[in-house]
Design brief:
heterodimer; A: elongated; B: about 190 residues; mainly alpha
Chain lengths: ~160, ~190
């Protein structure tokens, strides 16, 4: 057998995909032909390199997803159901937006009323606990009396 | 994949049940073939993100069409034909290819730190091989994948791809020869 013919068959030879009598002929040729042996070695190296490519794992949730997909295939959503679903989605979206708006407005009113309450509370607290004591000369203090005497009551 | 007569008999029994709407039998069939389906798709389309979607489509098709399977060929041959058709359609619609390690790193799918790992060079070599396979013409790539990874005989590949036996031999020979040239510096 000629080298050109052998080389075309080397891939099938590697895979064991040829009748026995052809296999014997090619084996005998390879024993005598250095070039064809080099060819065989090169294709064999390609096969080895291909073996290095790893596969991938099947994700654990694959079957669950498949079950769901098949269920949907078996029970296709009717047009009426689709409209109902859309309407439900629209109502839900409206309810969410309305809740956000109402919540926002309510929050604003509550904040304003709380701000007023805080203001009056601050004034009351100042009076009750005498927080005016932290002023330069608190009313009724010895310093205030002395200051009035010295300045003739002109102190602000 | 089913190669022995016993396994084929087991498939035949399962398929009969599945055709009658038995979901448990279908799940058994899926469990048995899902690794082969996943890996054939992955090696062919080269994009890990889309493998699961395609595998779902394949098994949904099996569920829908199993009643039309007449048992003239092995179930695995019929299943692989569905896989091949889905893969070819996918590649027609999507011209995306295998992402290189650098591209995967750029996209944040592989941390930079991996680059200092001792097996980084080996991984780059594997990536070059993967890229070379990805660049093969569609039919050569599929014939090679079925032979190399799924250990299908040339006869089965011919049935799956609906081509002659000599075509399969030629496709695989040309695929390996092309890879030999492309990977001359690597192997």
């Amino acid at each position: 057998m000629k080298c050109s013919k052998v080389r075309k068959k080397i891939s099938a030879y590697l895979d064991g995909e040829m009748p026995e009598h052809k296999r014997i002929i090619i084996s005998e040729h390879l024993q005598q032909c250095k070039e064809c042996r080099a060819d065989l070695a090169a294709l064999s190296a390609v096969t080895d390199a291909l073996d290095d490519i790893e596969g991938i794992e099947v994700p654990p949730y694959f079957m669950t997803r498949l079950r769901q997909n098949i269920k949907e295939q078996r029970e296709p959503v009717s047009s009426l159901q689709r409209i109902k679903n859309l309407a439900f989605a629209a109502v839900t979206a409206f309810a969410v937006i309305a809740s956000l708006f109402i919540g926002n407005q309510a929050g604003r009113i509550l904040y304003q009323s709380m701000a007023q309450t805080t203001e009056s509370l601050e004034a009351e607290t100042t009076d009750v606990f005498g927080l005016g004591a932290f002023e330069e000369f608190p009313n009724g203090s010895l310093s205030d009396v002395y200051n009035e005497l010295v300045t003739g009551g002109n102190n602000g | 994949m089913a190669k022995t007569g016993n396994k084929d008999d087991a498939d035949a029994h399962l398929i009969k049940l599945v055709a009658g709407g038995d979901e448990q039998a279908f799940e058994q069939l899926v469990q048995k073939y899902q690794p082969a389906v996943f890996n054939t798709i992955y090696r062919y389309i080269g994009n890990p993100d889309d493998v699961q979607d395609l595998a779902q489509e394949v098994f949904i098709k099996v569920w829908q069409k199993v009643g039309k399977f007449k048992g003239k060929s092995k179930f695995s041959t019929w299943l692989y034909r569905i896989v091949v058709n889905h893969c070819i359609n996918y590649r027609r619609k999507n011209k995306r290819r295998h992402l290189s390690l650098d591209e995967l790193t750029e996209q944040g799918k592989i941390p930079e730190a991996f680059k200092v790992e001792p097996d980084w060079e080996q991984r780059q070599k594997v990536e070059l091989v993967r890229k070379a396979v990805d660049e093969l013409p569609d039919r050569q790539r599929m014939a090679l994948i079925l032979s190399q990874y799924e250990e299908k005989s040339y006869k089965e590949i011919a049935e799956i791809m609906k081509v002659s036996l000599s075509s399969v031999e030629s496709l695989i020979f040309r695929a390996r020869s092309a890879l030999r040239v492309k990977l001359a510096d690597v192997i």
